[in-house]
Design goal:
single chain, alpha+beta, six-stranded mixed beta sheet
Length: about 600
């Protein structure tokens, strides 16, 4: 990887002068002083900086000695250069590309063994997300103490995680090349060639019920350079913390014992939620919906994955977020010209304070280009931007770069995500609408104010076994389970903007169809009013704890429907109409929307007698 060398004397001079001159920016920005900006603008060409004045939101303050002792300023995020390769489902990689999969395992094993003090170690890169430690910036650049760099509950969610994955993939690939060089003879040729095809794989959780097989095996057999077939600790099963962190974090990462079963139980609801993404016309709304789905995966896997700070240490995090990035790329390809727009910042991060606005030009700290400029969302606002960093997806292939990528991506999206329009829920009698390719889609909207929220929570929904007289005695069986709304949060009180409303959608249609309930309001609303209920759990390290609904005083559950049309022409996107909220299913229930309260989603629907 290219390293930007900076004179030790120049670094020392900058540090000395900055120690006297640097001051905090207003509005929670990082270091901001004329003198410090001029000094940094005068860096040599080798340092990657240009002779310009940088605004306070884009400081160049990394000219300090790094934790790993190297006298360099930063590591540019450039991805894997030389060839564009599709990221593939991890199961497909394991089955159809065994040599590439072997190098993936060897690279992950070596990556996880790097000295935790090295900026490019697995440990340090994982810590970028939620650990309160600056990465290639001085401590003085910290804006919100106690937080990491990740941008959650933000329009920057999808765009921030893209360079994060590019960095991880960049180092993983470089590690694989080093390992391949240790092979001899025909194995050397084979595995060096395999490295050219190595990219980060994804966990396709909208197509596979449960976790990938490779993440569930504590040991796995690989071909190593010196020992040949060797049984090793599986680097995708967990990550073993270095001795220096065991007292604080434990010996290794862990997951909920019931994670795989819980994922399987919610698979239909998850698929339905992913299906709805393609019909969302605005990027900000799409990003919020995708983040909610992503959060549910986090808390359902549980353990270290259930919190901001430690989740990236679990190797499944990278497979999970690779799929999130894939869904962002698919949306970008099928919605050209639809970009994120500015919005008030809700949560403070290590580098971004409150109050503030997240915009397309907001720096995506701590990721930088070779020029020294921070990445911004402008860098990744189109699907074709991924090709620049050496990767593609099956639904967003580089082979379509000169063709109609939008049409191809829409066709693939429809093929992957559409419900069965030949089913009974799409006939006129049960669908609630007359069009043969449309039906009413029913959902719960869960809204909370995340101000003061500590720890991740889950709202579980059930249909059936509801005891109106004593709701606490309702039958919470697997057969009655509908799905969950996850509020993915930190284990401590984060700095949040007051009125930080968090909305999560839980699809009800799959369970109604399974129960043969017609989707017409006169059939669905009475059923939901009679049988729908919900419980609240606080996510624990190994087991969730059910807590009273009153523990989330701001909880507001609403039920709404929307007409969704899935055109016969598969080159056209699904279309949804404005939602209508019904009070019947939540009236009189703890945490439910009551008559007279404003609908959090859409408009008030007609009253349905039940």
């Amino acid at each position: 990887m290219e390293r930007h060398q900076v004179s030790i004397k120049f670094v020392s001079l900058c540090i000395l002068i900055l120690s006297f001159s640097s001051v905090r920016a207003v509005n929670g920005g990082p270091l901001n002083s004329y003198l410090s900006k001029r000094l940094l603008a005068c860096a040599t060409p080798e340092s990657g900086y240009r002779d310009v004045l940088y605004p306070s939101t884009n400081p160049k303050t990394a000219l300090t000695k790094r934790l790993d002792g190297r006298n360099t300023s930063f590591d540019p995020i450039i991805g894997v250069q030389g060839k564009i390769v599709e990221r593939r489902p991890v199961g497909v990689l394991q089955k159809d590309y065994p040599d590439v999969f072997n190098m993936l395992l060897l690279a992950m094993e070596a990556f996880q063994s790097e000295d935790e003090n090295d900026d490019l170690s697995y440990n340090r890169i994982a810590g970028i997300h939620g650990m309160p430690n600056p990465w290639q910036y001085p401590p003085e650049a910290t804006v919100t103490p106690g937080e990491g760099y990740c941008t959650h509950n933000s329009v920057l969610f999808g765009t921030w995680h893209r360079p994060y994955l590019v960095l991880f993939e960049q180092v993983l690939h470089k590690t694989a090349v080093k390992v391949a060089q240790q092979f001899n003879g025909t194995d050397a040729v084979k595995y060096k060639a395999a490295c050219n095809e190595l990219r980060l794989p994804y966990w396709d959780w909208n197509a596979q019920a449960g976790m990938p097989d490779v993440t569930q095996q504590s040991f796995i057999t690989v071909v190593k350079p010196l020992t040949g077939l060797t049984r090793i600790s599986n680097p995708f099963y967990n990550y073993r913390y270095p001795a220096s962190q065991v007292a604080d974090y434990g010996v290794s990462t862990n997951r909920s014992p019931s994670a795989n079963e819980d994922l399987q139980d919610s698979f239909d609801s998850l698929k339905s939620a992913v299906t709805s993404l393609s019909s969302i016309p605005r990027f900000n709304t799409f990003s919020d919906a995708l983040e909610s789905i992503h959060g549910w995966i986090h808390v359902t896997v549980g353990g270290d994955m259930a919190g901001f700070a430690k989740s990236p240490f679990d190797p499944i995090f990278w497979l999970h977020h690779c799929n999130v990035d894939r869904l962002v790329a698919i949306y970008q390809a099928s919605h050209p010209g639809v970009y994120m727009t500015s919005r008030a910042r809700v949560w403070g991060t290590l580098a971004l304070g409150l109050p503030g606005v997240d915009s397309p030009s907001t720096p995506l700290f701590p990721f930088r280009h070779p020029s020294g400029e921070e990445w911004t969302s402008e860098d990744v606002k189109t699907e074709r931007s991924i090709f620049k960093y050496g990767y593609a997806y099956p639904e967003v292939p580089v082979t379509e770069i000169d063709g109609d990528l939008r049409t191809f991506s829409i066709e693939q999206t429809r093929l992957l995500f559409d419900p069965d329009t030949n089913g009974t829920s799409f006939n006129g009698a049960d669908s609630g609408v007359s069009a043969p390719t449309a039906r009413l889609e029913w959902n719960c909207n869960v809204q909370i104010d995340s101000q003061g929220l500590v720890g991740s929570h889950v709202v579980n929904f059930y249909l059936g076994g509801y005891d109106k007289a004593s709701p606490e005695n309702s039958k919470k069986s697997k057969d009655n389970y509908v799905g969950s709304a996850a509020i993915f949060s930190s284990s401590h009180i984060m700095k949040r903007r007051s009125g930080s409303l968090h909305n999560v959608t839980v699809p009800l249609t799959p369970k109604l169809v399974e129960r043969h309930v017609a989707l017409r309001p006169d059939k669905s609303v009475p059923k939901l009013a009679d049988q729908l209920y919900w419980t609240l759990e606080k996510v624990g390290l190994t087991k969730n704890q059910e807590v009273p609904l009153t523990d989330l005083a701001s909880l507001k559950v609403a039920v709404f429907s929307t007409v969704a049309d899935y055109p016969e022409d598969k080159t056209k996107l699904p279309v949804t109409a404005n939602p209508l909220t019904y009070y019947g299913p939540t009236e009189g229930k703890e945490g439910g929307l009551q008559p007279g309260e404003a609908p959090p989603v859409g408009k008030e629907g007609p009253v349905v007698i039940h």
